[in-house]
Write a structure and sequence with these properties.
Blueprint lengths: L1 H9 L7 H15 L22 H6 L13 E3 L10 E2 L8 E3 L4 E5 L6 E6 L6 H4 L8 H4 L2 H4 L2 E6 L6 E5 L3 E5 L4 E2 L1 E4 L11 E6 L5 E5 L9 H7 L4 E7 L4 E9 L2 E6 L5 E6 L4 E6 L8 E6 L3 E7 L5 E7 L3 H8 L1 H7 L6 H7 L5 E7 L5 E7 L10 E5 L2 E5 L6 E5 L2
Parallel strand pairs: 5-9
Antiparallel strand pairs: 1-25, 2-3, 3-4, 4-5, 6-7, 7-8, 8-10, 11-12, 12-13, 13-14, 15-16, 16-17, 17-18, 19-20, 20-21, 21-22, 23-24, 24-25
Helix pairs in contact: 8-9
Pfam family, one: Str_synth
Keywords: Glycoprotein, Membrane, Signal, Transmembrane, Transmembrane helix, Vacuole
InterPro entries: 6-blade_b-propeller_TolB-like, Strictosidine_synth_cons-reg
């Protein structure tokens, strides 16, 4: 019997053993993916282990919203705005202003007037090329993002009325109170490295602007590869308006995303989407220059925003699963899994991922004050930002064609 087994490898071809041949073909398809059916296609996929907290420990301490209160939100401006990632209001209280998938920053002028184009981030912008209506959040629009721009984080300087923009392709920009064509401020850091994926920002009272550059390898179009690889080349940057230089505050980050200064500006928070957490970085005091984990989350955070009480709203695309954690901790298994010849949506469902929206309110110590969920995806399945303004939550999304509102508290 042993001799017969050895003959398989010594003198016989695998083609004479159909089961061995079948396994060989299947493994070849998985690793080579010759038909480019898998979600990774032609990409040079190099997964690494994620630095993420235990799924079990996070979920044990995470309060659930059994009433799914976020699902009672109201849909606003349906099919009028496309991918409204960030929401802002000017110093006179007008708004919202938001950046759209077609490359514009628009503002709401009120009933009877509707939305108007407030700013664009590049002279390349044209209505013919960029304004594709409700197709602007489809893959069709992605072909034009690098030309039209993709405004993500927005912030008003309350002193000057200027609007600062983090654009995924054109870096950090500013436009005056009357709008128009935005002026570039930062497209490279002080060492000449390009800002490949500017994402969000906040403005310090001294004029410095803190903003995130999500990856040094991938742009927004390939943001899923950042998540799937777990690569950590993202950075927290600071633009100095006096020297007009951009300094690296923190590097080696895994999908740095939202940024928010504390009310007293002694620290700032930024989210790491891949690692499902919020990081606290000290700007003042004895711990200046150090950072700590502020909160581990059940899902993938986007922007973080301050309310008038000095508390922090975090937008979370939920939720992690045990299967997803296995892949996060095992790069080899992940490499094989995402080369399977199936669409990403199928592979995600196979891991038990049924995305829905969670928003959570934290105090300055990282303690959870509120959790609102939309488990049925009534308001939105993916969330990007939550703003609390005058007794109402304004909720943005990078993928849907509406904004949501909810009275609060």
């Amino acid at each position: 019997m042993e001799k017969r087994r050895l003959q398989l490898f010594r003198g016989e071809s695998v083609f004479q053993h159909p089961y061995v041949f079948l396994v060989t073909v299947i493994l070849s398809i998985i690793f080579i993916d010759p038909f480019r059916i898998g979600p990774l296609g032609d990409h040079d996929y190099k997964p690494v282990k994620h630095d993420v907290a235990s799924y079990k420990k996070v979920m044990e301490n995470w309060p659930a919203d059994n009433r799914s209160r976020l699902g009672y939100g109201k849909l606003e401006f349906v099919d009028q705005v496309y991918g409204p990632e960030s929401l802002e209001f000017d110093r006179s209280g007008r708004g919202p202003y938001t950046g759209l998938a077609d490359g514009r920053v628009v503002r709401w002028m009120g009933d009877g007037f509707g939305w108007e184009t407030f700013a664009v981030v590049t002279p390349n912008w044209s209505e013919k090329l960029c304004a594709n209506g409700n197709k602007s959040t489809t893959p069709t629009q992605s072909k034009f993002e690098h030309r039209c721009g993709r405004p993500l984080g927005l912030r008003f300087d309350t002193k000057t009325g200027d609007l600062y923009i983090a654009d995924a392709y054109y870096g950090l920009l500013v436009v005056g109170p009357e709008g128009g064509l935005a002026t570039p401020l930062a497209t490279h850091d002080i060492e000449g490295n390009p800002i490949l994926f500017a994402n969000d920002l906040d403005i310090h009272s001294n004029g410095s602007i803190f903003f995130t550059d999500t990856s040094k390898r991938y742009n927004r179009l390939n943001h899923f590869l950042i998540l799937l690889e777990g690569e950590a080349t993202g950075r927290l940057l600071r633009y100095d308006p006096n020297t007009k230089e951009t300094h690296v505050v923190r590097d080696g980050l895994a999908f740095p995303n939202g940024v928010q200064l504390s009310k007293d500006e002694s620290f700032l928070l930024f989210t790491e989407t891949t690692n499902c957490r919020v990081i606290k970085y000290w700007l003042e005091g004895p711990q200046k220059g150090k950072d700590y984990i502020f909160a581990n989350l059940p899902g993938f955070p986007d922007n973080v925003r301050l309310n008038d009480k000095g508390q922090f709203w975090v937008a979370i695309d939920c939720c992690r699963t045990p299967a997803q954690e296995v892949l996060s901790n095992n790069p080899l298994i992940r490499s094989i899994y995402f080369r399977l010849p199936f669409k990403m949506s199928f592979l995600a469902r196979l891991m038990g991922m049924d995305m829905y929206t969670v928003i959570s309110l934290f105090n300055e110590n990282g303690e959870i004050l509120e959790v609102l969920e939309d488990k049925k995806g009534v308001v939105m399945k993916l969330v990007s930002e939550v703003r609390e303004v005058n007794g109402k939550l304004w909720i943005g999304t990078v993928v849907h064609n509406h904004i949501a509102t909810l009275p609060y508290p």
